[in-house]
Protein: 2-phosphosulfolactate phosphatase
Organism: Microcella alkaliphila
Amino acid sequence: MTQPHDENPDAQERYQVRVDVGLDGARRIGETAHLVVWCDAIATEDVPLNALPPHVEVIDARLGAASAIAQRLLELQAARGERTMVAVVAAGAPIETPDGFPVEDILLAGAIVDALGTVGIDATSPEAAASAAAYSGLRGAVGHMLTASVAGRRLAAHEGPDAVRAVRARLDEQSLHILREFSIPS
């Protein structure tokens, strides 16, 4: 039975904060969003900006910038004067059709959802709530999860320990990386 306010359950439209995985996931939950937060902890591929809905604001997430991302959503919501929907996407690898479970990206997505909840944006989908719970439970071990994950071990095996250190430093950055600002669709 279809719910009147949620005609496409895959899009998680009834929720302000949504989480999905990969580019297909971004398309599912991002079409009716105003902001896409792209969570790629290891970032072996560029953010697929041109493959995302053209009207959405796109932020390239960093764990250190989770609070800044939450503040940005509040600013966007105030500017729009209405509830603003956010699609938090765990990139996975490859981003088109991720293979395996991208634990490092799920934890980064969870950190973003957690930061949103801290500022009062907490109408979350079950997927978003689960990623936030994973982050909360593993908050002290995120760095270890990054290096111990399949993706982290692959990176170390192919590019060496310096590449892993660079990824960890990137993840800790506190600056906000807005790749495209929100625009009203025509």
Notes: The two ends are 32 Å apart (CA to CA). Residues 17-174 form one domain. The chain has one domain: 17-174.
